[in-house]
Amino acid sequence: MSFSVSLQHRYAGFTLDASFDVPAQGVTVLFGPSGSGKSTILACIAGLLSAQAGRIALGGEVLFDRARNIDVAAEARRAAVVFQDARLFPHMTVRNNLLYGFRRSEGDAHDFATVTDMLGVAHLLDRRPATLSGGERQRVALGRALLARPHLLLMDEPLAALDAPRKQEILPFLERVRDTARVPIVYVTHALDEVDRLADTLVLLEQGKVLAAGSLHELSARTDLPLLSDRRDAGVVLSCTVDSSDAGQTRLQFDGGMLIVPPWSGVRPRVRIRARDVAIATEQPVGLSIRNVLPARVTAIAPHDDHECFVNLQLGGTFLLARVSRSAVVELGLAPGRDVWALIKSVALS
Ligand SMILES: Nc1ncnc2c1ncn2[C@@H]1O[C@H](COP(=O)(O)OP(=O)(O)OP(=O)(O)O)[C@@H](O)[C@H]1O
């Protein structure tokens, strides 16, 4: 099932002309600099703004089609929105805030307990919003949204108002929602750490236009997207499964090989392998302290700056990015099609 969005809208000084087609599952992150049109797109999806032209369809359901005069009312779209500020009702307890949307849905007590447990708000039910921390308020806002049993969950920079420790506190809850709630999520942010942690699919926006849309893994391996490749820690994000674990190390399986990492107890680990942490050897090295040495094939080479190149590598269905000096590319005779060994010096786990 796909989620298909095509929108054209003009404000004085700003033109939105954005189209993307993404899977209607998991988290789709709209990422781009301030003013690139992220919130405008979200408002159109929510039904809070009618674009001057375009079409929005979730699976077979058309929510908006300007040409056919279809514009499903916001409530009927069943799209719950979580904003930067929690927007809870101040005079109501947490319980009543949570029950607000729930009453109107076909939910039952089991869902209420599941959601309050999942978001760690069960002990806050009798409190009022003013007595909660910013992170707790956002968890309640998320709970209220989930209990409305939305067909789409929309989040507009839900962590932007929180300080770094509160943000770290709430990210695992968002991961849990992504991994357990069967509702497609569209998530707006301009924070790359949130992209790394949460995105399954990424839509990159700049000045009202879509630069690229695709899986986070695929886009993180692209060298022609400065929004991603110019970051200091540019590199690919891989979703893995745990193969085995013992006291000393964990083995992570990915499509194309195995990674050895320090002991890890999570369920669906994601790793970021930074391009500067990947070296290339043309023969299998021996006597190395690096544990992750994997056979790979060079697929492309692109200049990064005056001194360095990005080398695209493929291992099975997985792409890696290595940053190596221009002189090394020449000396090693690296070229597309060449079989090499990728030496992964360090792996960042989230
Ligand atoms: N109601 C409006 N009237 C006129 N211009 C608007 C209106 N709403 C948004 N804009 C303009 O449209 C552009 C896109 O705004 P939008 O809020 O969608 O961007 P954004 O990517 O979400 O930005 P940010 O990350 O800063 O929230 C901006 O230039 C903004 O000033």
UniProtKB/TrEMBL annotation:
PROSITE patterns with a match to the protein in the record: ABC_TRANSPORTER_1 (PS00211), ABC_TRANSPORTER_2 (PS50893), MOP (PS51866)
GO MF annotations in UniProt: ABC-type transporter activity; ATP binding; ATP hydrolysis activity; molybdate ion transmembrane transporter activity
Domain Mop: 287-350
Domain ABC transporter: from-to ranges: 2-232
CC per GO annotation: membrane
Key words of the record: ATP-binding, Cell inner membrane, Cell membrane, Membrane, Molybdenum, Nucleotide-binding, Translocase, Transport
Presence of keyword Iron: no
InterPro entries in alphabetical order: AAA+_ATPase, ABC_transporter-like_ATP-bd, ABC_transporter-like_CS, Mo/tungstate-bd_C_term_dom, ModC_ABC_ATP-bd, Molybdenum_import_ModC, Mop_domain, P-loop_NTPase
PANTHER family: ABC TRANSPORTER I FAMILY MEMBER 10
Protein name, as recorded: Molybdenum import ATP-binding protein ModC
Species of origin: Roseiterribacter gracilis
Organismal lineage: Bacteria, Pseudomonadati, Pseudomonadota, Alphaproteobacteria, Rhodospirillales
